[in-house]
Amino acid sequence: MMLEHLPARVSVYEVGPRDGLQNEARALSVEDRLRLLGALAAAGETRIEAGSFVSPRWIPQLADTDALIRRLDLGGPVSYSALVPNRQGLERALACGIREVAVFLSASESHSQKNLRRSVAEALATYRDLVPAATAAGLRVRGYVSVVWGCPYEGAVPVARVVDIAQALVEMGVYELSLGDTIGVGTPRQTEAILRALLDRIPAGKLAVHLHDTRGTALANALAALGCGIATIDASVGGLGGCPYAPGASGNLATEDLVYMLHGMGIETGIDLGKLVAAGELAQALIGRPLHGKVLQAASGERIRKSQGGADA
Amino acid sequence: MMLEHLPARVSVYEVGPRDGLQNEARALSVEDRLRLLGALAAAGETRIEAGSFVSPRWIPQLADTDALIRRLDLGGPVSYSALVPNRQGLERALACGIREVAVFLSASESHSQKNLRRSVAEALATYRDLVPAATAAGLRVRGYVSVVWGCPYEGAVPVARVVDIAQALVEMGVYELSLGDTIGVGTPRQTEAILRALLDRIPAGKLAVHLHDTRGTALANALAALGCGIATIDASVGGLGGCPYAPGASGNLATEDLVYMLHGMGIETGIDLGKLVAAGELAQALIGRPLHGKVLQAASGERIRKSQGGADA
B157 CB contacts (<8 Å, ≥6 apart)? Predict the structure, then answer.
């Protein structure tokens, strides 16, 4: 039986309020971002990336993350996180009292230069000081590695390079490493090959996958990752984040779609799918456009149908 | 290794020109349907459901299937098929020279009554004469079973019932049985359980899956089916067919998404993905709305981006 041995519980890591909103054209107010965070917490999400301490010049959508974090309940059941690119970001994180931060780098040199404006070596050098400083200050630090499944500039990315970067981050002290299929090119056997290579050096409990659904393969890749024992999966409410280059095309894996599949397989998440759909509907209303998440669309369609008195599905 | 033993080659069965078009609001002319069929054949598709001999009163989108079939090359590399609901449909099929037909029924009584306007027993009784008559006349007969993963009226459908219906159809002489997740509620462990039950009685070579992507799980279910040794998968170009009740929501699994995943896994299909995307773009143009297939959207987005001189992906 192919699907016999899968994790009994998956930890869903919500990236909508950060990775999602930073790729949306419309910037939300701190007030609206707080409403969205509240809806996600009400649905039972317990790990939420709430913002970023990257300069608002680069990502205006996530400006005022400090003010936002100060209004959250940081001692409650939800662990909030935010991105820190450098020492200045870490100072901001420490000043507003957040308990978890995330560092990020690319597995390809071209993507690092073009999107993060520094080389992979420069990013690693920065984090070699930053991560121990953050952990010494009592923060948990998560690490992101982008374009692991493929780079828009270089194409295939050698797995050995991903393993080296991953190991370096783990040695610096990140508690978890999220591997990103940033442009959504991955397929399941590739997912398995990448994870097997990493699992030779890093325990499954320290690994997460961050899958984009650009070519529809995100859930199939998630299934392959579950088969490798990975029990932490990133997702974005409603699929928030869209796609950087195609109107209507999709980026992030939608949290509802992931949770629907997991629950259907008897895998627990602690999340209430109905309330999660409500959070997705709120996200749609705030952002002012329909989101691509399929469970969200199906639920909205069902409601429209019922309100019109339709009987046939 | 979870994904080690999968079929080396998958037979893709194209349902866009039938299951797709019959669920579209806009009816295409025979001329336009022929253009779409030509594009699919040019992409290397060799099994295409081209229409239906159901009464045009019920499905006006597929009227004139006889005239359409008469203009196809029925002796070439592509095997065309059409639905036959009854003896009258079979007469039409024989008159126009098609070599393959398909019969269809529901696994749930309510769905059968509401959507096919007859009971499951009535459908089986009809086919008990029809299938042998068709095979005696030299036709290949495919069978469809709908709502195997769940019924919009009854919810869960007992697997034992599906097995009984499937076995009855195979005994009548259908060469292949396509199991439908008609409302797109399936998840991978359920897919595996359904297929295991069927595989106790019917060889894998006689089984196909027909998955809808309404909740985003179609490719993950396809992966589970591959893991059970299923090597025939139905799909619809561009995801043609939409969703009967939700604007923007999706029905059929898009052929390009399936082929993208299969090729990425080293599984052959004989299909040229680039030409298939071109067929999807033609389908979009003919139907007059964007289709939901993700590979199609990503490819279109990429083209828009390049035409605008954008550098960043």
Answer: B107, B108, B147, B148, B149, B150, B151
